[in-house]
Amino acid sequence: MSDSIIGAGPKRIDGQRKVTGEAPYAADHHPDNMAYGYGVFSTIASGTITGLDLEAARQSPGVIDIFHHNHFPELHRTPSSMAQGNKVEETRLPFEDNRVHYEGQFVALVVADTFDNARAAARKVGVSYQRDDAIANLDQGVKAHGTKPGSGNHERGDAEGNFDGAAHSIDVTYTTPVETHNPMEMHASVASWEGDRLSIFESSQGVVQQRGALSKIFGIPPSHIRVESPFIGSGFGSKLWMWPHAVAASVAARETGRPVQLVVPRPQMFTTTGHRPETRQRMRLATDDNGRLVSLRHESINTTSFTDQYVETCGSVTQSLYSCPNLTVSHETTRVNRGTPTSMRAPGAAPGLFALESAIDEMALAAGVDPLEFRLNNYADRDESQDLDFSSNHIREATEKAAEKFGWHDRNPEVGSMRDGHEIVGYGMAACNWEAIKRECEARVSLRADGTAYVTCATQDIGTGTYTIIAQTVSDITGLGLEKITVRLGDTSYPNGPISGGSWTTATTLPAVAAATREAIKELKGYATSEKGDFADVDNDSDSLVFENGQLTHDGQGVNYVDVLKGQKLASADGHAHTQGADDRYSYRSFGAHFVEVRWDPGISNLRVSRVVSAIDVGRVINSLTARNQVEGAIVMGLGMAHFEATDYDARNGRPVNNNYAEYVVPVHADQPPEVDVILLDYPDLEFNEFGARGIGEIGITGMAAAVANAVYHATGKRIRDLPIFKEKLM
Ligand code: MOS
């Protein structure tokens, strides 16, 4: 079959359902007799619940039950293993005891006949606390109880011994704040039970993992649980793993005997559904006379909760992006009174490359080398951390292409020298990088007698275009038009699929879908070559029997597959496949570079990003439209990280103070650069999978904040090492 559909840019096949409001999201489900839950959340960040006054709430209209630590069934914890398929990030169960570990923790759950009645009653619940001193931020955590070793560390050569005598060196520390995912769609569960069978609609990036976790927590077999998440108003990582509200909703439904809907209010989406933790990263780099790196140390500390150890692996990219014989990467955590952190788009790499790519800029300047030249001189040609070749790496070409298109070579390196009217223009650049991962996956494909194909896989489409690229894959092999292909995702009753995360959905699901399609064709050939078939004389595995454009063809004679099935009164030819994860022959990674132009108007203290050119090498591009969309979206999110995003906590008591859409600032349309130019290199990585695709969801955000910071330095001479780069910091 021609490969034209792979790499083309068809629009999302689910797009119309989404924009017309037809696509059901979790909280759109209203099963008969459904009741509504509303949480009561702790108003202290640390302490003990000493009393609950429930009288007024009980008498409030429509109240069915109120759950809390003295009225909640005994459950079990999940081992929280991704490999076992039951991972959660916050392992403490809701209402497990009377302890409060963070502000905005569930302390009670009111269930009532309507949403308004539940909310009104929840506000009447009185909670008294014994308040302990809260550890409100990273500095306080380190001071109070130091740090704990994390994971993902790496050491090679002698970084310390090669630092002091080096020709040029820097020793600088960067910090990044808590960032909160803020997907538009709220976290929500609609749970119902039939006997000992649980069914739950959830806004989830991983229905199979949620089923596994619920199975462990309730002690019932996975086959008795159905998790559905066919449409998601994004997640950015906050919906990869189940959070306490889903357990609370499931218990409430079981105990009240009614379906229960529970939506996490926006303020508590800052507390009980994860966040990107605060980091402090010390970077020590040194070069020889020629500007070659001789020593590199990246030491990172991130905040975690009192209930769980979450490591933000800031040095994950540092290990392999640059060639350096003497290198250490270390991660540590410190406990604070916040909810448990979790993966947020490009976990580790997003804050890590802010530090690394800012430090590379500082190192280049200290060594007297142009930052672009410095990178080209120091990029690694193989993965020195694993002692492996890269499967495919075009970072030099990406960097040079983007530099050319951006006009980097016209840059006057002198700080503040490029003026345009009353604005000072700054140019900055940074590399971007992300790992390429492929997991095991199952899929099922049916070629149906009505001329359509039907595909199922228990992965999800989080808005990225998974429905569409799966349909493209089936279309590529069968020749059926996209309009004839139905794709069903986000339901654990389908064959096991991966979480929608880690940028691994494309590389993981497409091989399984392709294999299942070929299995279906094989079954079809079996029918065609059977006694009653159209090709009864042909061997069923004969190479001369080919499936093309919906036809089975042999020796110039073609029969439409629909006729093959109808001739034998068959509904469909079906294929199921189970494909495996990546091997370890190579280091599989994606690469790229961002170039950013900022404009600083000192007269009115206005700072804006006016232009971005990014070149990205993610292997083969499956859908040029959705791929570009993801990089553009990640660039804008990276600008948010650079300029705006920070969840602020009151240092006196650990309370998040801007826990809403008004005060937690993300970029709006007016903040978008007038020009965003994304170059997709499109070199198939055929060592990685048959499609040569490595995944594209996360790489675009990595390096963006550093590229902005480097441009800001070029414009203003101010080196901002603590995100976000508020313009107040430039005044
Ligand atoms: Mo991504 S942080 O793996 O949703």
TrEMBL record:
Q: Which UniProt keywords apply?
A: Molybdenum, Oxidoreductase
Q: Domain of life, per the record?
A: Bacteria
Query: SUPFAM superfamilies this protein is in?
Result: CO dehydrogenase molybdoprotein N-domain-like (SSF54665), Molybdenum cofactor-binding domain (SSF56003)
TM segments? none
Aldehyde oxidase/xanthine dehydrogenase a/b hammerhead domain sequence ranges = 20-133
Q: Does the keyword Oxidoreductase apply?
A: yes
Query: What GO molecular functions are on record for this protein?
Result: iron ion binding; oxidoreductase activity
Q: Does the keyword field hold Ubl conjugation?
A: no
Family per record: Belongs to the xanthine dehydrogenase family.
Q: What is the protein named? A: Xanthine dehydrogenase molybdenum binding subunit apoprotein
Q: From what organism does this protein derive?
A: Kushneria indalinina DSM 14324
